[in-house]
Description:
The chain has 410 residues and is mostly beta strands. Helix content is 11%, strand content 43%. The protein is globular, with a radius of gyration of 22 Å.
Amino acid sequence: MNGSFDGxxxxxxxxxxxxxxxxxxxxxxxxxxxxxxxxRRRIASGVAAAALVAVALPIGLKVGDAVSRGQDPVExxxxxxxxxxxxxxxxxxxxxxxxxxxxxxxxxVGDGFEIEVPGKxxxxxxxxxxxxxxxxxxxxxxxxxxTRYSTDGDAEDLGTVLNGPVASTDGRWVAYxxxxxxxxxxxxxxxxxxxxxxxxxEQSSITLPDPVDAYEVTIHAVSDGTVYFTPxxxxxxxxxxxxxxxxxxPAPEPAPGNLDATAISPDxxxxxxxxKVNDFRACSTVTELSAGTELWSTCDYTIKGFTPDGVxxxxxxxxxxxxxxxxxxxxxxxxGNLVRHYEPTAPFRHPITFADAVFEDDEHLLIRxxxxxxxxxVRCEVFTQECGTAEPLxxxxxxxxxxxxxxxxx
Length: 410
């Protein structure tokens, strides 16, 4: 269906080409906009259906609650279909474009907007907010200039950062690290953690203890005015334990348990952490902080991120090494049960590197995948085994051209 739609749209555009100014990649841009429009309509129809369910429920009840008078409860959807899914980027069906901003070349493509990033410096990271995106550009120096681009075309220079930016899943908060460097590009003095409330423009910051290496701080989640992060000691190169800092607090708070975190749920309550490394693989535990209880553990996967609602996680094989993971998985965040495991159809002749991923929403995982010298953005559904390309396979990889870059949303 998507192929015929794209073909008809291209033919229509080409027939009218002599009547309009020549603009590079016009058909591709029009198809992107049409894809986004169709995706918004599909999401809107789902919202409308949910609204009808909500209207049908008695006041005071919500979806999933038991309904009185003998009515069956409305159950949330559960995953179905095979857990093992094989992929070939060359044969995947084309789907709608991503609903979260991403980088294509030097163009940031969002839902209803495109922003061309000027200059030639490599783009190191993008962090989307409600009406724009924070962009870090690496120019070969230790500090990266950061600019906030609005969807209406305005650009605001925010200075330089040593790490980040990272955006919250709700598009309100952005966190990054700053600090001074010496002539050899080494950090000089303490690192500063900055948190921006993009709704109000208010900026808060905290100076971290001097041994903290700003370059190696891992920001795991940004939520409701709190940053969850793991610092690193620049004297030893070793990671410290998980900490959190809320805007206005005088100092970060260490999380109980001395956790070596790899991912945190958006509300900061569930933490995936590495407990031991042996035989070339890492074992991980998922812990509920508020209760202080271990939910589950695994030596098969390393957890990398949560859905916005915290129900599912994405993970890579725990023995991943070298250029990048050759498989990616979705697991139940509460039980650790495997939902999907994606791997290449022909792992030896046409291997796939799953370079990066982010949950697009509660139901879709967006993956930057590389195969045979090309890169595609792949969307896989949580509740079915269906996968398709959100952006087509194009020439270039992380080592050559880096054609796509996903948003840094945690």
